[in-house]
Design a protein that fits this description.
8-stranded parallel sheet, 254 residues, globular, 3-stranded antiparallel sheet, 8 helices
């Protein structure tokens, strides 16, 4: 894992998107398609805007999965990650091959179907963020680092649910579902390459916990440190609490 610190969130989004487009182009030069996993949430919006502005990628050759979805939330709900991906990635690019999880469907059947699809071949590239509580996808602390299942039903903790209210997806915490389908930690780590996009001061404590502390289920995104082909993009605000020793060991020049 390598950390790259940019001056601000706009520079972060541009740098991460340039990296992602280079990776997509490289894969498509030698292979008929790319298997991609995309993250959602407010922290990913600027990155996805930059990414989808790239016009020399044949998005019809991209097979898309997503990390997580609320259980019991219809696709039309403003907080649905299916809706988010349609608006911010699928519609702008014309991706036609996607595996969106409908949160209003039976979760066991949904998991069965998406597990079958994602297990058919390796994942080339995965985009992730880090939650305010350190979560990776919807794997809140203490995260399950051992499950071999590609997707799991998980319980969302209060910090995670409050983050969704703070980002404006829900008016009150009582409206936030308390369960979700999440890609497992091991499935995330199975990707050939991971690009992690983490802007803003509100993520600084989680960044510190995940990259200055021990690799631990209590700081789920700390597990990214075990993946040799992960680049974490931070801005100065999200990196503000990182120790000099961590920056010296993990940071690349921006």
């Amino acid at each position: 894992m390598v950390i790259k610190v940019l001056n601000d969130s706009n520079a972060l989004a541009k740098a991460a998107a340039a990296h992602a487009t280079d990776s997509l182009r490289s894969i498509l030069k030698t292979r008929p398609s790319v298997r991609l996993v995309a993250a959602t949430g407010a922290s990913q919006l600027a990155f996805l805007r930059e990414l989808t502005s790239a016009r020399d990628i044949d998005w019809t050759r991209v097979e898309l999965f997503h990390l997580d979805e609320y259980i019991g939330l219809p696709q039309e709900h403003p907080a649905s990650f299916c809706r988010y991906l349609r608006q911010n990635l699928i519609d702008p690019t014309g991706i036609t091959n996607h595996h969106l999880m409908n949160g209003a469907d039976d979760p066991s059947r949904t998991i069965r179907d998406v597990c079958h699809a994602i297990s058919s071949a390796p994942i080339d590239l995965t985009f992730v963020g880090i939650g305010e509580n350190g979560h990776l996808a919807f794997n809140d602390p203490p995260a399950d680092f051992e499950s071999e299942e590609p997707y799991l039903i998980v319980n969302l903790d209060e910090a995670c649910r409050r983050q969704q209210v703070g980002e404006g997806w829900f008016a009150t915490i009582s409206q936030v579902p308390d369960r979700a389908i999440s890609m497992s930690i091991r499935q995330i780590l199975a990707a050939h390459e991971i690009i992690c996009v983490v802007p803003d001061a509100r993520k600084a404590h989680a960044v510190h916990a995940c990259f200055d502390g021990e690799v631990s289920p209590m700081a789920p995104a700390s597990i990214l440190r075990t993946h040799s082909n992960t680049m974490v993009y931070l801005d100065k605000d999200s990196a503000a609490q990182l120790s000099a020793a961590t920056l010296s060991k993990l940071a690349a020049s921006a």
